Structure formats: C-alpha cells, structure tokens
UniProtKB/TrEMBL annotation:
This is TetR/AcrR family transcriptional regulator. Pfam families: TetR_C_13, TetR_N. Residues 90-175 form the Tetracyclin repressor-like C-terminal domain. PANTHER family: HTH-TYPE TRANSCRIPTIONAL REGULATOR YJDC, TRANSCRIPTIONAL REGULATORY PROTEIN. Residues 16-62 form the HTH tetR-type domain. SUPFAM superfamilies: Homeodomain-like (SSF46689), Tetracyclin repressor-like, C-terminal domain (SSF48498). Keywords: DNA-binding, Transcription, Transcription regulation. InterPro entries: Homeodomain-like_sf (IPR009057), HTH_TetR (IPR001647), Tet_transcr_reg_TetR-rel_C_sf (IPR036271), TetR_C (IPR011075). It comes from the Bacteria.
Length: 204
C-alpha cells in the first residue's frame, strides 16, 4: 500500500504559523488533534504524523517559531548603545504593542499556551517554562547592566528587581485578554518605570 504523504501545495511554514496561532489562542490541551488537522487543510492523520511527528512535536516547533519572533521584541535588552532603563522601557512598550496586534492572538504564547497541563503533558509545561526563562534571563542581564553602568545602586538585588518587570510582562497577557487598552497599559508601564527611577535615586 502506498505511503500517504502531504497533500499537494502543502506549505509547511504556513502550516506551522496556523498551528502556532491555534495553540496560542486556545492553549495546548484544549486544542484537539481534529482542530489542528482541519486548520492545516483537512490533513489526514497519516499526513499529519508524517509532517509533524506528533501534537507535542508540533507544539514545540510552534513555540520555537514564536520565540524566534520574540527575539525582535527582546533585542533592546541586549542593545548596549541604549541605557539599561531605555532598553527596559523599549522592550516592554514593544511587547505591549505586539500583544495587542490584531493580526495575531492576544497575549503571549509562552505564558498562555503551556500552563495547567496534566501529567501526560508535563513536557509541554517544561518547554513553555524554558521559553519564559529565556526572557527572564534577558531581563536579568539588562538590570545587571544597569548596576554595572551605575544607573542603579550597587546594592540592587538584581534577580528580585528583574522579577518585578518579568511579573509585569507576564501579567500583560491576562490584562490584554481581559480587554486592557494600549493607553491603559502604557500608563501602567510608565508607573512601573518609576520604580526604576526611585531605585536609581539611591545611588551612593
């Protein structure tokens, strides 16, 4: 019997993007295999597994694509030509705008799509956690640079200070899904940046 392959005109990159949006919108476990196959052009089971291996492997590939997209958002954090404060603000502002983009699901896939998985899907939780950890580490490096460049006090608890901004970043997804506007979130961002300014005022 001939092996069932992909349908004609199958664009794998386009399929990954469509699957990514579905996982991003609904989460890993609520997204059924039937929904994925339908979204990807009514693929047969054989064609789906031939193309992607498994639902888990497809999610991991989608998450990797999403994190590649996020590299542009995180780029200011690594830009040493900017002050650390300016870098932090720019990254958070760009993230707010991206998560509100009408062309993609709202919020952050790494925050929303891989939570509350059952025991059989803990690998999904770990993959999502690792993705979030990458962003947290970029925030830590930015705060550390602020200390090293004497923008922040040398007494700054770098990890705790970075966690404040990381918590704001993760919370954006919920607020945006609940209908928060660009104006409201920008005001909140301006407010949280006063924490940086107040800490900077305590330079020795």
């Amino acid at each position: 019997m001939a092996r069932v392959g992909r349908p004609r005109n199958f664009d794998r990159d386009e399929a990954i993007t469509k699957a990514m949006h579905l996982f991003w919108e609904k989460g890993y476990e609520p997204t059924s295999l039937a929904e994925l196959k339908a979204q990807l052009g009514n693929l047969s089971s054989a064609s789906f597994y031939a193309a992607f291996g498994s639902k888990q492997q497809l999610f991991e590939e989608c998450l990797a694509k999403y994190m590649t997209m996020c590299e542009a958002l995180n780029q200011p954090l690594e830009d040493t030509s900017m002050s650390a404060r300016s870098a932090m603000y720019a990254m958070l502002k760009k993230t707010i705008e991206a998560q509100l983009d009408s062309q993609t699901p709202k919020g952050c896939m790494a925050v929303l799509a891989g939570l509350n998985c059952d025991d059989d899907n803990q690998a999904i939780c770990r993959a999502s956690e690792q993705a979030r950890h990458q962003t947290r580490q970029a925030l830590v490096r930015c705060v550390q640079r602020g200390v090293e460049q004497h923008e922040l006090s040398e007494k700054t608890d770098v990890l705790s200070f970075a966690m404040v901004f990381d918590s704001f970043l993760k919370g954006l997804s919920i607020e945006i899904r609940d209908g928060a506007t660009l104006a409201t979130l920008t005001q909140a961002l301006d407010f949280i940046m006063t924490m940086w300014d107040c800490h900077a005022c305590r330079l020795d």
